[in-house]
Amino acid sequence: MKGLSMVRLGDVCCVSNRFASTVAGQKYRQLGVRLWGGGLYHRDEIDGGETKYKKFCQVFKGDLVVNKIWARNGAVGVAGNDHEGGYVSTEFPVFSLDSQLVESGWMQYIVKWNGFWRSCEEKAQGSSGKNRVKPSQFLSIQIPLPSLDEQRAVVAKLDALERKTRQVEKCLDAIERDAERLLAQRFQEAIENAPLRPMRDVAPLVRREQSISIEDSYPELGIRSFGKGTFHKPSLSGGEVGGKRLYRIEPGDLLFSNVFAWEGAIAVARSEDLGRFGSHRFITCVADVKLTSADFLRYYFLSEEGLIKIQEASPGGAGRNRTLGLEKLMNIEVPVPSLEVQRRFDLLQSKVLALKSKHAAIREANAVLLPATLERIFSMEEQIHG
Predict the structure, then answer these.
(1) Terminal Cα-to-Cα distance of the chain (whole angstroms)
(2) For a designed S-S bond to 277, which of 246, 256, 272, 359 qualifies (C-beta 3.0 to 4.6 A apart)?
(3) Full residue range of the structural domain in which residue 185 is found
(4) Is the pTM of this model over 0.85?
(5) Residues 261 and 232 in one domain
(6) For residue 124, what pLDDT is reported?
(7) Who's near 249: CB < 8 A, 6+ residues apart?
(8) pLDDT for 46-84, tens place per residue?
(9) Do 17 and 135 belong to one domain?
């Protein structure tokens, strides 16, 4: 690009003073700012008599809005059409851009750039965990600024790139929805007219209690809710375990969180989970391979029908905690079609899982495309004028 320059934010914008005193009985449509350049969002409407703030600042399209506390984490955004007329408290300084010097679209990408976040963090250095970025500090931040024509040209290309990345995400989502629908259809076909047997017969409870040594460490395993699988927790030293009981987990175990199974904290331990331990809150079942598979049972318990049975076996408690009773779990009757039918379904499950794994790699590459492009464009200008 030609005509590159680095300028202070104070050279292209100024503090907005569109303040209005809050009035009891009047409603104010509040706005917030997401972290990491995520933009503005709508918060709950509030009555002027219910807020501690004596005044709000009104926001218009193209304004630059900053969360003073979280600016160091990229909480800076540019107002769009749907934010017009919204309000922010005094914790959110508002700046008006000089349209003769900078395009609002250019600033929308500047605030998504991690180099800009680093600058905000530098201005927020201090001893407090909530150290604020003052307006004067914010305005001293330098940004790259080519001519308006060049800004428009770059913004048009970046807009096209963003559209393409969104299209990729939508395409992947659509394919995965179709795959999940097919899987659900095949599962219903698999269990139609299948005999029911209690869990105690097909996947009984197994406990492998681990003896604890003060010198050793014990890597724990966790189970995510909503069928999201297992995750690895930090290791505990023998001293940290104390009097708690830990149980050894082995690949192929069907796992339930006894307090969150009702919301889908159900998983099958994988090979990468070998050597990890579950707390007393883990319910570990081992499928009888002559009758069923852990993956088939997992799918059933995460289906609408299966999850209802888990919820019925989990009496209510405080907050989200609803304890799954062992005896009730063992009494749940599950469909047990022939092993051949189950194997065919599990093969389809594995293919869908492989598809999602490939998609995850595509999503990861897609997600870094825009940030990498911004870094290349804006860092180049910094290097030229640094």
Answers:
(1) 16
(2) 246
(3) 148-194+337-386
(4) no
(5) yes
(6) 86
(7) 208, 221, 255, 269, 273, 274, 276, 277, 278, 282, 284
(8) 999 999 999 999 999 999 999 999 999 999 999 999 999
(9) yes
